[in-house]
Amino acid sequence: MLTISPTTSKITTTHHHHHLHHPHTYRHLTSHRPPPPPHPHPSKPLRLRRPFQISAIDAAQPFDYESKLSKQISKSKTLKIAIVGFGNFGQFLAKTLVRQGHTVLAHSRSDYSAAASDLGVAWYSNADDLCEEHPEVILLCTSILSTDKVLRSLPLQRLKRSTLFVDVLSVKEFAKDLFIQILPLEFDILCTHPMFGPESGKNSWKDLPFVYDKVRIGNDESRVARCEKFLDAFAREGCVMKEMTCAEHDMHAAESQFITHTVGRILEKLNLDSTPINTKGYERLLDLVENTSSDSFELYYGLFMYNKNAMEQLERLDLAFEALKKELFGHLHDVLRKQLFGTRGRSLQRPPALSKLPPNGNGLALPTGSTESESKSDSATSAELLCCAICTMAYETNEEGDNLKASAYSSLV
Ligand code: NAP
Predict the structure, then answer these.
(1) What atom of ligand 1 comes closest to residue 200's alpha carbon?
(2) In what ranges is there compositional bias, type Basic residues (predicted)?
(3) Given the DSSP bridges, would you call strands 188-194 and 209-216 parallel, antiparallel or unpaired?
(4) d(C-alpha 81, C-alpha 96), whole Å
């Protein structure tokens, strides 16, 4: 140990060795010594009466305290993450991030201070205060529709220039474009979509897909490490990590997620009830209704509005339903025609029913070459024919003609 032992050591304000500026280092240098007596002449430079000791190990280290500390931080597995938008999904993510040991801060339009404190999250009702905490990651969990407004309202100038911005929006091209448009070049951008929510991921995230696109991550080692650390929060929970472009995500999500939400919402309108003889399939439908109805309508509307592939999927769903009805009525029509006319009816050939829609991306044209409106009018024609046939049968066989006629009409109109 090397001892500097002048009888007095001078510390003045012009001293620039940053060891002495750092509070922890200063504490280290003085912690084992009694405090100096009060300085009798404040105008004169402070002179320490006791010998001032510096251990050689401190003086000779190639790295100073701060660089060691920053190395430790980059080696540590935890991050300081600020969640902006602390609604349903923001709180759901916070639970796991806190459990993993990350420091989580939150801010939202509404007051979630109580929920935050229950979750062990530091609550900031003011966005300026939140940004002045210099989080390493800003995690945007705002609704799709409000993200533009929220992002523009954040005091970006209060953040460190290297902050990593992450979003979890269910539409990705829109989020990516917004980030690129609004954020200064110094900020890193990671677009993600956890393909699960508070219902489907309530017990575990194991084997659930997590999509991400490293839109803009600086080459600096610490920036790369920070991004990996964030992704690791999902990987270590067992998520299936899928790296793909935002455009690829939106194409797949419209085919899968948007269709799922739409079917769930259609079924919800039927007010389905559990029965004493539920099949496994029916149980799954009830689960689907529960899963999709727990999400806000705003989320569903965002999936439709901000994914350019969603409209095509809605049209395809509509066509598929019409085609299926047409197929059913066509078969029934055949049976009735045979009963009515015997073999004489064979000469009237029914046009082939549409069995499947062309695959995605092949446009909406039906294979028969008919247009959507033609297909609808075809189905109306066969429905009318079917109705007439049922009525004719009813009259001919003297069954309760009027009732049958009425129910035939009501089921077709
Ligand atoms: P959401 O209805 O899509 O979003 C609710 C959040 O948006 C709340 O934090 C709310 O803040 C904020 N918000 C809404 N309008 C706002 C406005 N005008 N100004 C400021 N903030 C506004 O429901 P969510 O389920 O929590 O989803 C959040 C995000 O996660 C969405 O982008 C969604 O696509 C994505 N995501 C959701 C799921 C899921 O299963 N739920 C899964 C993956 C990804 P306040 O509550 O403070 O009003």
Answers:
(1) 40
(2) 13-31
(3) antiparallel
(4) 12
Tell me, in angstroms, the distance from the centre of ligand 1 to residue 299's CA: 7
3-state secondary structure of 188: strand
Architecture of the domain whose range is 74-244: 3-Layer(aba) Sandwich (3.40)
pLDDT of residue 408: 43
User: By alpha-carbon position, which residue is closest to atom 1 of ligand 1?
Assistant: 143
From-to residues of CATH 3.40.50.720 in the chain: 74-244
As a whole number of angstroms, the distance between CA 214 and CA 407 comes to 59
Whether the CA torsion 6, 9, 15, 19 is positive or negative: it is: positive
Q: Ligand 1 pocket, 264 CB below 6 A?
A: no
Judge if the beta carbon of residue 197 lies within 6 A of ligand 1.
yes
Using one digit for the tens of pLDDT, what is the confidence trace for 142-196? 999 999 999 999 999 999 999 999 999 999 999 999 999 999 999 999 999 999 9
Inform me whether the pLDDT recorded for 219 exceeds 70: yes
How far apart are alpha carbons 319 and 313 in whole angstroms? 10
Band (301; pLDDT cuts 50, 70, 90): very high
Q: Is the CB of 330 under 6 A from ligand 1?
A: no
Which residues, 6+ apart, have CB-to-CB distance to 96 below 8 Å? 205, 233, 237
Q: CB-based contacts of 152: which residues, under 8 Å, 6+ apart?
A: 182
Ligand 1 centroid–CA 137 distance in Å is 18
